[in-house]
Amino acid sequence: MDSISICVALFLTYFKNDIWDFASTLSIKKYILCYICVNVVITGSTICTSQGVTTCQQCLSVHPSCAWCSQEFGKGGSSLSRCDLKQNLLNGGCSKAALEFPSSTLTVLEDAPLSDKALGTAETVTQIKPQKIRMTLRPGDTKRFTVSVKQVEDYPVDLYYLMDLSFSMKDDLDRLYSLGNELAVAMGRTTSNLRMGFGAFVDKTTSPYMYMYPPEAVTNPFKLLKIEKCQPQFGFKNVLSLTDKVARFTEEVGKQQVSRNRDAPEGGLDAVIQAVVCKEKIGWRPDASHLLVFTTDAKTHIALDGRIAGIVQPNDGQCYLDNNNLYNKSTVLDYPSLALLTEKMSENNINLIFAVTSYVVPLYKGYSQLIPGTTVGTLSGDSGNVIQLIEEAYAKIRSKVELETLGVPEELNLSFNATCLNGEVIRGLKSCTGLKIGDTVSFSVEAQLRSCPKEKSRTFTIKPLGFKDSLEVTVDFACSCNCEAQANSPLCSNGNGTYECGVCQCHQGRLGPRCECSVEDYSPSDDVNCIPKPGSPICNGRGDCLCGQCSCHANEFGQVWGKYCECDDFNCLRFKGALCSDNGKCSCGFCQCDAGWKGENCNCTTRTDTCMSSIGLLCSGRGNCECGVCQCTQPGAYGATCQKCPTCPDSCTIKKKCVECQHFKRGQYTEDNSCNRICKDEIKLVEELVFNDRNAVNCSYKDENDCVVHFQYYEDESGKSILFVVKEPECPKGPDILVVLLSVAGAILLLGLIGLLIWKLLITIHDRREFTKFEEERAKAKWDTANNPLYKGATSTFTNVAYKGN
């Protein structure tokens, strides 16, 4: 690679996420970078030679294009820098065998095709590809690979129903008993391989969570209420392990009795952590979707609440179910933290569904934002809608694919770009929504090594949330050189240093290229070699000149290096007091941003998922995503994702789909089960539309039945969206049958009469024409007076010859 190539590489590295910004608004720092690039071409210097590195390992860390020459040049040999571009070193006489230039590579080790249907054993079902890759990365270098994910059809489902059995849930328990078979039938529509289990919880069995007085209250918490049909308080109980016998589920639910605890919050998180980690006891299958349905009508205790009862030992996330399937560490371990729950759920591929009453929905929605892979549904007073809730939650889970990473080294940055169903590449996003079973989505992953870890190799995992399938990525860090070190080498002034990769690493108190100079051998004449330019201080005032070389001072703020101590790792732009915003590394005055960040001080994220609206459009299609924040460009648009815009022409189009799915239970959002996710509006039915506010927008559309639906879109002062929908659409009235029949009959008679009149008129005209023609011909005729020889007169006289009368 020549000087121009490294300039281009520098440019692309710095501006890789900011090309258009470079074209429009160049900052001073970027002008400086361009000046450096021009200087590269004119003077022949490169980023490799300008950093003042002295060892092979330092050279490899400067830039992925830098190479090191370990060849021995001897006296009078080449004076070129050992750290330079590969081609420059070869042109300078370095042999290929002496070059240290490890390159970044990527090899796919396992790449089985994606499965179409869940047939056969778990090993034959593949929902992610590739399955195993190996990379070699140099510091500062990146490698990209693509991960494809597909949710196969008819995948097995394990459904574990975890229920609060405090007294307020008695009607819910009775309702669940009657719905057991219906639940199995409903889930059977999504999979032919279903197993169901049941667990129950109340709270820790110690004061102040439990009634301890009178003593009889320990065995019968309802003693004072004179209710006999109950059970003693318990922490968590695995009533029924996962089974494909649905009748047993209904049977065990019917046997349960409610209990009673003393305080309002319940111990549900204790039960959740045990249901998650006790894989063998619960019966979770490795080759199935794991659904954990958590039902309650109360708040729940969290970590540190156990201190009220003197329980200070943190929850360790281990399984503690005894032979009776009861949690036996309830009074020993504190409640688990949300972080511990998140970790264990990820390890065991659990999808948690909070089915809670409306009173506590806001609390559990807050939990779901902190625990990936969870959904929240509003449970009716007697759990009558639990089947619909579970179906909708499962459909929501199956309609989303989100990647998670496990065990990624701190020195490695990962950035994601998602390509979902529409083929659009969304930067910074590692999830896709609105999917159907059988759809395939892909994610582009870029791995960048910021610095060298202590280990030579590390392995981490990328997996879809809630899936057992995963991609195993092994990274080999190309941070060291292969050239051998020779301790006390004669090449280093008779053993005053270690000869490694062509240079001497001098012993304490020795300096010089060959360790030929002692600290005591100071000569003022050597100072000229330590001055960068006339008038400048020696070693830029940040070091001492010893034997013609700058020995940089130690600095409390960081490291100082370079031929003239011109470089450091602490003089870069800051943001809110943080060097390079804590999102990059400072190197010789420039911030080298981590993957996923850009800008002079690395304070601008390249993520776009924070700009994604609920309808799946970037900034709702009304703005641009800049540094992870939507800048609304559509007049009248506002909100975190420009989602609010009463005056936008497309508001009616978007809200029309919500009216269709929320009120009429039909349309696109109903078919793809995205109504609850996208439409957060409150529907109010009215007889007619009235003027609510100047920002209200009246809309109308014609539905599939050719009826006109009228509604009004309005946002109150709190930003809540309200849709006022006219109850009855305006539908065209049907035809009057009698009128139609009479009209048709009248039309037929009228047409017949008209036909007769036309026929009569034509006949009359024809006769008149014939008569006129006859008269004309008669008038033209000329007659003679001759007698007709055939004519005989009317009188004939005959004589009778025999008559002899007078």
Question: Would you give an account of this structure?
Answer:
- The chain is an alpha+beta fold and 806 residues long.
- It folds into seven domains: 72 residues, ligand-binding face of the semaphorins, domain 2; 113 residues, Immunoglobulin-like (Sandwich); 243 residues, Rossmann fold; 37 residues, Ribbon (Laminin), CATH 2.10.25; 44 residues, Ribbon (Laminin), CATH 2.10.25; 42 residues, Laminin (Ribbon), CATH 2.10.25; 76 residues, Hormone receptor fold (Irregular).
- The chain is 24% helix and 24% strand.
- The chain contains 17 helices and 41 strands.
- A hairpin with a 2-residue loop joins strand 22 and strand 23.
- The longest helix has 43 residues.
- It is extended.
- One of its GO terms (cellular component) is lamellipodium membrane.
- Belongs to the integrin beta chain family.
- It comes from Mastacembelus armatus (zig-zag eel).
Our count of helices gives 17
Question: DSSP strand (E) fraction?
Answer: 15-25%
Radius of gyration: 45 Å
Kindly report how far apart the N and C termini lie: 170 Å
In the CATH classification, which architecture of the largest domain applies?
3-Layer(aba) Sandwich
What's the CATH H-level superfamily name of the largest domain? von Willebrand factor, type A domain
Number of domains: 7
How confident is the prediction overall: mean pLDDT? 83
Pairing-aware structural class of the strands and helices?
alpha+beta
Helix amount, in percent? Answer: 10-25%
What is the CATH fold-level name of the largest domain? Rossmann fold
How many strand elements?
41
Low-pLDDT sequence parts: 1-6, 8-44, 75-80
CATH class of the largest domain: Alpha Beta
General shape: extended
The biggest beta sheet reads:
6 strands, mixed
Tell me the strand order in the biggest sheet: 4-6-20-19-14-17
Subcellular location: Cell junction; Cell membrane; Cell projection, Lamellipodium membrane; Postsynaptic cell membrane
Transmembrane segments: 737-759
Family: Belongs to the integrin beta chain family.
Pfam families: EGF_2, EGF_integrin, I-EGF_1, Integrin_b_cyt, Integrin_B_tail, Integrin_beta, PSI_integrin
